[in-house]
Amino acid sequence: MNSLIIGSGFGFYGYLPSIYSFSKKIFINKKYKQKYLNLKILKRFSFKIYWYKNLYEIIEDVDYLVIALEPSKQVKILKNIFTIKKKFKHIFLEKPINNNPNNSLMMIRYLKKKGANYSIGFIFEYLKWIKFLRTKKKRENFKIVWTVKKKKFF
User: Using an 8 Å Cβ cutoff, are 42 and 16 in contact?
Assistant: First the structure.
């Protein structure tokens, strides 16, 4: 199984270590190579990284897609990628999905319409109820499901 990471911030620090164990190849755009090489802590992940220049040349080999960009870019990139390849085993996105709640809900609808399997990264560490989650995590088969319902925000 091959993965594609788009983004060099949390894409490197968060997702690269997470997907390394199940990825045969991890594709990263060549434009991020120098930034990666400057991050010595990530050197141990180099063995599976393949630097690409043209997304069209590698996209058919990608099973897992990681987009770790700022919200406004994340949506645009995702829609462009769907014009090239229609299906992935899983898509990992960053929160917030888009720059406002209504656009985020529209993006979720878009993903569902495409039949995409996706997840949205969320850091629970800063929530007031982290102690509750840590206690529950110790139980077997505990799973967190986050459901967003349409709500008028403004």
Answer: yes
Asked if residue 38 lies in contact with residue 62, where contact means CB atoms within 8 angstroms, the answer is no
Cα–Cα distance for residue pair 136/120, rounded to 1 Å: 21
DSSP state of 3: E
* pLDDT, tens digit (0-9, with 9 covering 90-100), for 111-154: 999 999 998 876 655 566 667 766 766 666 666 665 555 444 33
CA–CA separation, 146 vs 94, rounded Å? Answer: 14
> Burial of 8 by CB count in 10 Å (0-12 exposed, 13-18 middle, 19+ buried)?
buried
Which of 46, 83, 89, 43 lies closest to 66, judged by CA? 89
ω into 101 cis (within 30 of 0): no
Tokens of 38: 């400057």
Q: How far apart are CA 49 and CA 57, in angstroms?
A: 16
Kindly report the pTM of this predicted structure: 0.78
- Tokens (6 digits) for 42: 């990530």
Q: How far is it, in rounded angstroms, from Cα 29 to Cα 7?
A: 9
